[in-house]
What we know:
Oligomer: single chain
Shape: elongated
Distance between the termini: 127 Å
Number of helices: 15
Order of helices and strands: HHHEEEEEHHHHHEEHHHHEEEHHH
Helix content: 55-70%
Structural class: alpha+beta
Number of domains: 4
Number of strands: 10
Amino acid sequence: xxxxxxxxxxxxxxxxxxxxxxxxxxxxxxxxxxxxxxxxxxxxxxxxxxxxxxxxxxxxxxxxxxxxxxxxxxxxxxxxxxxxxxxxxxxxxxxxxxxxxxxxxxxxxxxxxxxxxxxxxxxxxxxxxxxxxxxxxxxxxxxxxxxxxxxxxxxxxxxxxxxxxxxxxxxxxxxxxxxxxxxxxxxxxxxxxxxxxxxxxxxxxxxxxxxxxxxxxxxxxxxxxxxxxxxxxxxxxxxxxxxxxxxxxxxxxxxxxxxxxxxxxxxxxxxxxxxxxxxxxxxxxxxxxxxxxxxxxxxxxxxxxxxxxxxxxxxxxxxxxxxxxxxxxxxxxxxxxxxxxxxxxxxxxxxxxxxxxxxxxxxxxxxxxxxxxxxxxxxxxxxxxxxxxxxxxxxxxxxxxxxxxxxxxxxxxxxxxxxxxxxxxxxxxxxxxxxxxxxxxxxxxxxxxxxxxxxxxxxxxxxxxxxxxxxxxxxxxxxxxxxxxxxxxxxxxxxxxxxxxxxxxxxxxxxxxxxxxxxx
Length: 520
């Protein structure tokens, strides 16, 4: 379960106060404990030092009665002095305060050298902790024995516990009071933030007619005694005049909020009506919602106009005989007109988002990829005529690919347009053939002219000679062969001439008299 803002405020406040109390208690406990333990150690050192000094003479004189009296008096000084005993220089017990006999293991539990004033060790008897002090008994730097003193740590721990409880009680009372005070301070803050949260959810649902900021007790036109009803702020009880552009106050700088706020902050209306940070946030939120509503209305109008223009552009592109498509920087199709869809036999929805490898064969797609990458790298357009084969037959296409740039000059994709020039190519081929035939015709005409003249002479003379030579002679046969072959040559030249010029023969009446007259 997620906590609300108010619960988080209370939990944070409680946690901070609790942490503060814990830190205070821990610090006080540590300081108090250390102070009491230090005081206890110093008291043990003081008692042991005095006892070791007073024990020098009895130890030297081996006055057991005096030694016993001194250790008994020392034990009776305080309840936390657990034991006292004296060892001679060999470590043998001389006197002690134990009622059940001297514990031998305690003799070696703590030792002190001649060069030290004392030695302190914390002993654990399983039942309680004891500070054991060892003090050397010295006379003129000669050691005659050791005084041992044991102080109970339990007494000190009890004193620390009592002091902690006496500290905890007022701290707890202060903690509870602070909780209630913090809750009382946080409640109006969380309530106003809750209102702001509800307004934001209302705005997310699409309702931008929201009023988050409280209604002012006096509005700007009432404060300034203004009757300018044409002012944008007049009659707007929930809106603040310093957020509105075009207000008619003589002291205001004209313009949007960023331009006029400096002058508005010196106005008495601002000082009387402006609130704390949360109120300013609510006022800003209301103004933002109003501005957002206005901008959304403008965007909807712009979107409507844009859709109309897009539809018009699509209609133009779909009716043009040229195919057009757009690819992004990753060479994926972003748009395609109807002609291109018909060319690849796909619907537009099947093309958008696809690449050349999804629409064409691998070889063609790889060739297109190399061309497109070269355009993207160089920024140079591509103009090419390409012959393609499809299930509808072979076509010639004139293709133009140009890079598409962003406003910052960076290439964002490719725009390609193409036109079916198959008919143009066919006409060009026919024209080229005609031009070739014309050239051949001119060549053949020249050749025929050059050949026909000598061939005519050869034919004419051979025919004249045939009239003079006897038919049964060999010469007559030879002349007949020459005449025949000459006619064949003239026929070949005539055939070449007719083929090159693609001319046909026509039969029509001929006036022989007119022809003879032209010759003569």
